[in-house]
């Protein structure tokens, strides 16, 4: 069939429009299948991108260690005792656990108010060492991160998150070199982080100001106490096979019962990554099964409606055969009707799915979440090609049925 044969196209349109209600209901199965597939895929990919940004820069082989409350009396120490990690725990773990690659202490204070001129922003203050980038490597938009010189000299410098930057410096692109005030002390900005990482219970990096660990120790007279610590394991080892040994060493140092499960909390980032990955794999499989199942049922519906149409056009097909129509002409006509019905319904499903995803994205963006729900061009292209193939397959059985009609049988039936 020539692509620009207007007679053929007119004939195809006339055939499909003879029973508009039936054609519409048949096409709706294809429409709904591709609509659900694209919408669910777009939504799933959007949330996956959001989770990826949440974990961005975080070391997958890491674990956070937090102090809890004891539940068992041990060696003269009462139960329900609160305790604190200290800097000695970091050195102790480095010496005793050979599988550890990085161990670093963190001091954190919540609900801090940062000020620049008359502008204020609320966020978290986090004291870190220079090796913190091995645990959670922020994407630096301007300047640099905390370095070893800052630690040694106890400099009053900071790296601010992008949300703090937006609130304090809405009209200044690069605020590095300027000073912000925190608890009556001025800190010079040396870097701006663009990350949205939010793992380990430390809060979102976009709302965090990082300062040198030693500076925070000195200003707030914290001594050796720390808020929590975090570690990564060397290549070839897992957090799961290491965390129990870490917990036991810390319990022994702080006179905590070895069987006390609540006193030391270890947050395994490696396990969390695996769980999230499995979740999205399962969601993706389910979405594909729902979409493909619906599309197949829609294709069967198209095939059935074409079979009914063939029966209604028995005389027409018989006459065409009688006046010399080639079998290939009849097959092309039936296949064209099937493919066009499938493609039109499918493209409509893609269009409305993308339209709805765009609407959802606009609504969600007003809440402050930056989520891109749109599908990739590759997915849309693959879906369109699949629809064309599906339409062709749906038209095969009706085409074979049309070829089996003999002119004499068609006239006799009439």
UniProtKB/TrEMBL annotation:
Keywords: Cell membrane, Membrane, Transmembrane, Transmembrane helix. It is a multi-pass membrane protein. InterPro entries: ABC3_permease_C, MacB_PCD, Macrolide_Exporter_MacB. It comes from the Bacteria. Residues 23-247 form the MacB-like periplasmic core domain. Its main location: membrane. GO terms for cellular component: plasma membrane. Residues 289-407 form the ABC3 transporter permease C-terminal domain. The chain crosses the membrane at residues 24-43, 286-310, 330-357, 377-397. It is found in: Cell membrane. One of its GO terms (molecular function) is transmembrane transporter activity. Belongs to the ABC-4 integral membrane protein family. This is Efflux ABC transporter, permease protein. The lineage of its organism: Bacteria, Pseudomonadati, Bacteroidota, Bacteroidia, Bacteroidales.
């Amino acid at each position: 069939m020539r692509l620009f044969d207007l007679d053929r196209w007119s004939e195809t349109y006339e055939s499909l429009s003879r029973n508009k209600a039936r054609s519409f209901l048949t096409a709706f199965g294809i429409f709904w299948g591709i609509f659900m597939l694209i919408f669910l895929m777009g939504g799933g990919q959007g949330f996956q991108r959001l989770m990826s940004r949440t974990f961005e820069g975080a070391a997958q082989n890491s674990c956070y260690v937090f102090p809890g409350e004891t539940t068992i009396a041990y060696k003269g120490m009462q139960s329900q005792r609160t305790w604190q990690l200290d800097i000695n725990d970091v050195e102790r773990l480095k010496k005793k656990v050979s599988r550890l690659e990085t161990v670093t202490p963190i001091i954190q204070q919540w609900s801090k108010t940062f000020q620049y001129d008359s502008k204020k922003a609320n966020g978290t203050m986090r004291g870190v060492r220079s090796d913190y980038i091995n645990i959670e490597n922020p994407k630096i938009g301007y300047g640099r991160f905390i370095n070893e010189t800052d630690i040694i000299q106890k400099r009053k410098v900071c790296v601010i998150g992008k949300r703090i930057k937006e609130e304090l410096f809405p009209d200044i692109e690069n605020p590095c070199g300027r000073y912000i005030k925190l608890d009556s002390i001025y800190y010079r900005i040396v870097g701006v982080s663009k990350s949205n990482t939010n793992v380990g219970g430390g809060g979102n990096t976009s709302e965090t100001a990082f300062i040198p660990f030693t500076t925070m120790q000195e200003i707030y007279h914290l001594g050796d106490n720390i808020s929590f610590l975090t570690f990564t394991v060397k290549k070839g080892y897992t957090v799961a096979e290491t965390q129990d040994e870490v917990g036991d060493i810390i319990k022994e140092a702080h006179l905590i019962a070895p069987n006390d499960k609540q006193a030391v909390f270890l947050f395994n980032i490696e396990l969390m990554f695996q769980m999230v990955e499995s979740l999205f794999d399962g969601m993706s499989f389910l979405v594909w099964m729902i979409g493909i199942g619906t599309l197949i049922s829609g294709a069967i519906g198209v095939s059935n409606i074409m079979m009914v149409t063939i029966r209604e056009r028995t005389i027409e097909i018989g006459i065409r055969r009688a006046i010399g129509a080639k079998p290939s002409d009849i097959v092309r006509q039936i296949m064209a009707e099937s493919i066009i019905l499938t493609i039109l319904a499918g493209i409509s499903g893609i269009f409305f799915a993308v339209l709805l995803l765009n609407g959802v994205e606009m609504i969600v963006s007003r809440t402050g979440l930056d989520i891109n729900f749109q599908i990739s061009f590759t997915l849309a292209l693959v879906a369109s090609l699949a629809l064309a193939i599906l339409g062709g397959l749906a038209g095969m059985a009706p085409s074979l049925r049309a070829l089996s009609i003999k002119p004499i049988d068609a006239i006799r039936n009439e």
